[in-house]
Write a structure and sequence with these properties.
The protein is an alpha/beta fold and about 250 residues long. It contains ten helices and eight strands. Helix 3 links the parallel strand 3 and strand 4. The longest helix has 19 residues. Bound molecules: 1,3-dihydroxyacetonephosphate.
């Protein structure tokens, strides 16, 4: 199974559902549709509405983050996994670099993953090195630490997906070389094996994915799908990625 996840970040109002309608229509007619899943993570404000609308359709809805507590608490503006699940989401991102940079620690992320899984959300756990870490050749050690500090062999690996997003690649148009990315993806799977045993969670790539570079990524068979930011805000750009991947 391949995953194409569109992360809308701070984008979208109720009528933006038109973008998803077009993607849904494409997927429902696509002869390759059984080979991949489309998941969109709109902002919290749209989850309930979109999840209701796309129930029993081609697109699954996820959240971009969740709070590190279970159900209800006195934390202003926090939204818990229980609330997200109750709104109809099936997935949640955890550990996006945007949120790590706002102060999410490994301990907080571990609680997020734990409570998300407890509330029957599937978790897309995001990892990635920054520019300086890459320059200092610390990529693999950074990724290993991010994975082993948070993912626990007690977690149900069937409900976990890992997304590798090099921070320097997000929104920059810069992407890793094919050799580099293949090596990194294989390494991530090796670390996941050491945590979970033989069958590892799926590993996605994210960072400036678009309709033209997806053909290069496709050649790396270890990559199980993509976490797509900018290009997911346009039905045409998102559909181009799907078309070119399966061409
Ligand atoms: P871009 O595709 O815009 O680089 O964003 C990637 C991302 O951060 C998705 O979560």
């Amino acid at each position: 199974m391949r995953y194409f996840i569109g992360n809308w970040k701070m984008f979208g109002v109720p009528k933006s559902i038109n973008i998803l309608n077009k993607i849904n229509y494409f997927h429902s007619k696509d002869k390759n549709r059984k080979n991949y899943r489309v998941i969109i993570t709109p902002p919290y404000t749209l989850i309930e509405n979109y999840a209701k609308y796309f129930k029993n359709k081609s697109i699954s809805i996820g959240s971009q983050n969740c709070y590190q507590k279970d159900q209800f608490s006195s934390d202003t503006a926090a939204v818990s996994p229980f609330m997200i699940k109750s709104a109809g989401a099936e997935y949640t991102l955890v550990g996006h670099s945007d949120n790590r940079s706002e102060g999410d620690t490994d301990k907080m992320l571990k609680n997020k993953v734990f409570f998300a899984l407890k509330n029957k959300l599937k978790v897309v756990f995001c990892i990635g090195e920054n520019k300086k870490e890459k320059k200092n050749k610390r990529t693999l050690s950074v990724l290993k630490k991010q994975l082993t500090k948070v993912l626990d062999k007690k977690f149900n690996k069937k409900n976990i997906i890992v997304a590798y997003e090099p921070i320097w690649s997000i929104g920059s148009g810069k992407i890793p070389t094919k050799d580099e990315l293949k090596k990194t993806t294989i390494y991530i799977k090796k670390v996941l094996k050491s945590i979970f045993g033989k069958q590892t969670p799926a590993v996605l790539y994210g960072g400036s994915v678009d309709g033209s570079n997806v053909k290069m990524f496709k050649e790396i068979k270890e990559i199980d799908g993509f976490l797509i930011g900018g290009a997911s805000k346009s039905s045409k750009k998102f559909i181009d990625i799907l078309k070119n991947y399966y061409r």
